[in-house]
Amino acid sequence: MKGNQSRSRTMLKKHQEPSPLGQGLAEVFDRRSWRVQWGLVGLVRDWSSIVGETVAVRSMPAFFRRDVLWIYVVSPIWMQQLQLQKQDLLDRIRRYLDRDEVADLRWLLFPPELLPEDENRESGTMPERSVAPEEEESFRAMVSGIVDPESQEALFRLWLAFRKKGSVERDEG
């Protein structure tokens, strides 16, 4: 009986020892591969400064599948053009992400619901999609456990901005 009590105390102490929040978040990010997805958020946000305005108005980072970044492009002609610039674009993206985890770039056409009416995309911005109030409420409920209201609101704004730009496929592997 005494051995069981000792083991219970040891287990209890392990769970009660505080650890820095940053350390815990880093572990969760690594375990869930969120670091790569967080990099995608930055790529979308800073796309025109990374690849230049001419390319940015005709393309957008879509998703990561393992170590490959898939990029939406407005037309097959622009797929060919970006293929010719692939190494330069890959170098720029790696510099921006400050890591070599992106092994390759692949292209796919914008889904019809994301393709702007003006195929030339002169405005340089992606069309916004509406977000249903139920989705917003659901997300707010999901993040309600975050104690800091500023962090909660910042996460909601990030989710909302990303949601309005279109869905992103997740890498399950």
From TrEMBL:
Database matches in Pfam families: DciA
InterPro entries listed in its UniProt record: DciA-like
Location of the region described as Disordered in the Swiss-Prot/TrEMBL record: 1-23, 118-137
Superkingdom of origin organism: Bacteria
Protein name: DUF721 domain-containing protein
Natural source organism: Desulfolithobacter dissulfuricans
Higher taxonomy: Bacteria, Pseudomonadati, Thermodesulfobacteriota, Desulfobulbia, Desulfobulbales
